[in-house]
Amino acid sequence: MTHRTTPAGPTALRPVEPAPGVLVHSSADRRLAAEHWLLSTLRDPQKGRDQWQAAGVAMLPLGTLFCAVRLPARLVLAVTGAQRLPAAAIDAVLNDALGGAPVICDPRHRRYYVLLPASVHRSWNDAADDWRLMGIDVLGRGSMLGVPDLERTQPRTLDSYWSVPMESAAVLGAPLTVARFIAAAQHLLGDDQP
Length: 194
Prior knowledge:
Layout: E1 5-6, E2 9-10, H1 27-39, H2 45-55, E3 57-61, E4 66-72, H3 73-80, H4 87-97, E5 103-106, E6 111-117, H5 119-123, H6 125-131, E7 137-139, E8 144-148, E9 161-164, H7 175-189
Antiparallel strand pairs: 1-2, 3-8, 4-6, 4-7, 5-6, 5-9
Helix pairs in contact: 3-7
């Protein structure tokens, strides 16, 4: 075995220095930041923590930091083509179709809620009127949403859970992606709409 020599001696591996300016946050840190961000919609964030502790769901006001687009399950299942798949597979398809937008599933009422920037409620007024015929609603100021504890990422009986978990504070869905998803639903459902 031969060693290459340099004026300083045999070639050795140098320790890798981390790139300057790169900061990595753990998933627990991101989840905690998202929890604080969500609960900041309340005058008393402790009230939301107490609701999460007692019931697993906190009632949060919409329209200040985020709004929600309510989608009926039949629409989500039509677009994802997942009528016969288990919930986890539907959630994975939904994650891909909506580009990772945070989504809450309410199995009891067979609805999904996509979280979007608060401004969407105002800017989508005209489209929202047309979408109501399909059972879609854009919920903003004056509405409340049952938001599950961020640990609830798996379906359990009829409890609400994060179908697509919120990755970090203020990371919301892209309005254009959700609008395209709804357009695809309109096309697929055609005359089958209520």
